[in-house]
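Exam revision sheet. Question 4 asks you to relate a sequence to its structure. Input first:
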Amino acid sequence: MIERIFDYRRARKLADDNPAEGLGKWRLVISRDYYYLLETFQLTRTGPPLDLGMWVFEPDDDVGPTTYQMHAAMGPHCRGRRAIYSGLTAIEWMYDNTDCNEILASVPVHLRHAQRIPRAAGLEFVGVQDDIKLYRMTRDRFRNMEMSA
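Answer key, structure tokens:
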């Protein structure tokens, strides 16, 4: 389940527990303009949900007012297909609940395993810049994927 959170302590814990290789600490911005979407799983009916991973959507005003950079911090229980499904659910949440029209994802070239997620989720490869692979998903592309599925 994807939920937007405003509890930045939960976001900080996930970011600190799942650092990106060679990229150092996350810089969490406390702002209503940023969207922190948490992937949770209810392990038991009565217990608290388990935080599996986090998607962060950061406004990219340099590109356009409805463009967001997508970042991820996935825990060990949110890998492979679950991470792809989670990413698609987060993208759907953004398109259903915000004015977002384009999502950009930047993945360092040296994180080969992480390259699979945007490709498998249907993001379009844009190119390489400064050892970073760039991917994008427009609202129209996403909606066309939904219709053909």
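Marking note for examiners. Residues 80-97 form the longest helix (18 residues).
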